[in-house]
Amino acid sequence: MEFIIHNSLNPKVESAWKDLEENNNLITPFQKLEWIKDYIQFTNEYTSGKKKTIFLIVKKNTENILIFPLNIKLNFLKKLEYIGEPFNDINIPIINKNYIFEDDEISFIKKKLIKIFHNKIDCINFNNQPNYLPNNQINFFVLGKIYQNSVNYKINVNEQYLQNIKNYKFWKDVSRRNKKYLQQDNVTYKLLETLDEKEKAFKFFTKFKHDQMERTNKKNYLLSDWKKKFLKNFFFENKIYALLSSENKIIACACCVLDNKILYYLFPAYDNLFNKCAPGQQLINYIVSNNDIHFKIFDFTNGDEKYKKYWSNNRKIYSDTIISFNFKGLIFELLMRLKCMINKNFFYNNFLLKILKKFR
């Protein structure tokens, strides 16, 4: 095997990437070349010098079999991660769909990746690695010591599911609230398509998502100007579903991506003033029930919110992993493990969470 490092998204990398991406059901929107190009463009423009981009291409007998799209964060801690943080909800290499990997090859690739970088960084931190690929093939490229697992909730959308869901207690409550509040108040469901509508949706999202992240002690990516600009571009390029009040004001919206008959539910937000009608649940119900774009799977991606469990009939596991190479890397690893312990503890300390969220 041959391992080739490129420090930019040059024509050779793009050519190899396009060959692997074509009709490839092993990857997700977060491994699409256009998504990566957009992300690099924004990071280069607004964070110059803070990240080093690396593309590791693995070849076998002149055939490209893998591409690892990676960043090295050049802060006090030099950390190797997948390109796209904090928006890369699913992290896998770009995999050759026609190549069958032997167990010894997978092990060799992992060891070689570690050997290439161990003297250049403090740690490898790969998050949101699914245990299964979109076509339900096992993902053999989860790398490192797992310090946290999370559930990826999905819906296999079919007629039987749409019938069965109506027998669930939570769905009956959603239906009751729909009749009591949405129908009486003439709330409507709409796929937003014009630039003006999407601009309005993005402003709504930034306001209410910002409030939610501050309220729940999540690391608030909306405090960053470049991340807001990247997201705005993302909203304009993808599908946005919304619930509109009788005054044509948004009360809930979500930006989604359709790829290979999978609808990825990525950036939802809702107005807390309408909590009594459960606007987020109502929006999901409309999207899944109408299914006017004919998706087969509704993917919640990462996040352990309880409502996802209620809707789901298919669950997979995401793994966050870390490999530390020196004292600084070890301290970071310990902090991440401590953060996980605090999150799992029913009596967690909000003050500690506010501090630890700065280390992601």
Describe the overall structure.
- The structure is a single chain.
- The chain has 360 residues and is α+β, with helices and mostly antiparallel strands.
- The chain is built from eleven helices and 13 strands.
- Strands 1, 2, 3, 4, 5, 6, 7, 8, 9, 10, 11, 12 and 13 form a 13-stranded mixed beta sheet that branches.
- Helix 2 (33-46) runs antiparallel to helix 7 and helix 6 (195-215) crosses helix 7 (225-237).
- The longest helix has 21 residues, at 195-215.
- It is globular and about 65 Å long.
- The mean pLDDT is 91.
Key terms for this structure?
360 residues; 38% helix; 13-stranded mixed sheet; alpha+beta; globular; 27% strand
Structural topology:
Layout: E1 2-6, H1 11-21, H2 33-46, E2 51-60, E3 63-74, E4 78-82, E5 94-95, H3 103-117, E6 123-130, E7 145-156, H4 159-164, H5 169-182, E8 188-192, H6 195-215, H7 225-237, E9 239-244, E10 250-259, E11 262-270, H8 279-290, E12 297-299, H9 306-311, E13 314-324, H10 327-344, H11 350-356
Parallel strand pairs: 4-6, 11-12
Antiparallel strand pairs: 1-2, 2-3, 3-4, 3-5, 6-13, 7-12, 7-13, 8-9, 9-10, 10-11
Helix pairs in contact: 2-7, 6-7
